[in-house]
Amino acid sequence: MLVLLAFIILFHITSAALLFIATIDNAWWVGEEFFADVWRVCVNNTNCTEIGANFQDYSTMQAVQATMILSTILCCIAFLIFLLQLFRLKQGERFVLTSIIQLMSCLCVMIAASIYTDRREDLHKNNPGWYSLTLEGSYGYSFILAWVAFAFTFISGLMYLILRKRK
Fold it and tell me: 48: pLDDT confidence band, cut at 50, 70 and 90?
């Protein structure tokens, strides 16, 4: 049982690390001379432009930013609640609250990555000078990590749902 518990804790920490990297790192859309994420676009590694109110589809990017941040926060909260429930729950009870919060984190990261996938071309097309970048690039590792984090948080949420506290 101790090995299973260590695996679950390690799996949850890995999920949180993936969410942090995907949210912070600047590699959602990359090309030869540029890279972009949900916060800024950098050309030639020197000319970085923050995505702000002057951005055409700023509300869409805000939705992606907010849901990625929310998924990271929910994942961390789920871990803290898991640790509290680990010592407070009676034997045989399930970690339902932890599972619900982790599945909400999973839903948030899925929404963020889905919005970015759907609106990526429109996000850059409506902003002068950025449309040519969208044609030359490809999805970066942070974007892929966001989808991997989705799978990890989903599996983690299901593990908590079926996990019973045993001796």
Answer: confident
